[in-house]
Design brief:
181 residues, alpha/beta, Rossmann fold, eight-stranded mixed β-sheet, 5 helices, globular
Length: 181
């Protein structure tokens, strides 16, 4: 893995493992970013600075690693959070919609919960995840929210792999290139 951009003041201690969870994938372990309280705080602060002037109703956080960073940011922004869950983790009674999408290593299904105060129409959302690789997860979530009438104001990730997605409008703190050394 080669670091292309690091907007954090701390030295990165990311761990990677080749061919996990399947051959051809380089797993990036973000655990060191959580273990170091100063790094976790800096990530939270940088996302807060990026989002504080946007009119966000909800941060949308994909299971499970999006939960880790997004909840701290939501608390600082005083916004609600929408946990995007894997199929079967929510009671069907409380699922607004479910959608299929293609991950880097196979198909998956995610579910958006019903909101307590109405529906998605006309509300403003921002999606945060740990890693933006191909973009399939965040783009599937964004498309689903927009199909429900919501406004997606942007997408952000701690780590972006630009060569896999060619996305110019994703906010990221760290950009990397996979090297498979």
């Amino acid at each position: 893995m080669k670091i292309l951009k690091n907007d954090l003041s701390s030295e990165l201690n990311l761990r990677t493992e080749l061919n996990f969870p399947v051959k051809g994938i380089e797993f990036i372990d973000i655990t060191p970013l959580i273990l170091q309280k100063n790094v976790f705080a800096e990530i939270t602060e940088k996302f807060y600075d990026e989002l504080k002037d946007k009119s966000i109703d909800y941060l949308v956080l994909p299971e499970a690693r999006g939960f880790l960073f997004g909840t701290a940011v939501a608390e600082k922004l005083n916004t609600g959070i929408i946990p995007v869950r894997k199929k079967g983790k929510l009671s069907p009674k409380y699922v607004e919609t479910q959608f299929d999408y293609e991950k880097e290593y196979g198909p998956d299904t995610l579910e958006l919960p019903k909101l307590v105060d109405g529906n998605y129409k006309g509300k403003n959302f921002y999606i945060i995840d740990d890693i933006y690789a191909t973009g399939h997860t965040l783009n599937a979530i964004s498309d689903t929210i927009e199909n429900l009438g919501g406004n997606v104001l942007g997408k952000g990730a701690i780590i972006n792999i630009p060569a896999l997605n060619n996305e110019k409008n994703v906010f990221s703190l760290i950009d990397i290139e996979e090297t498979f050394d």
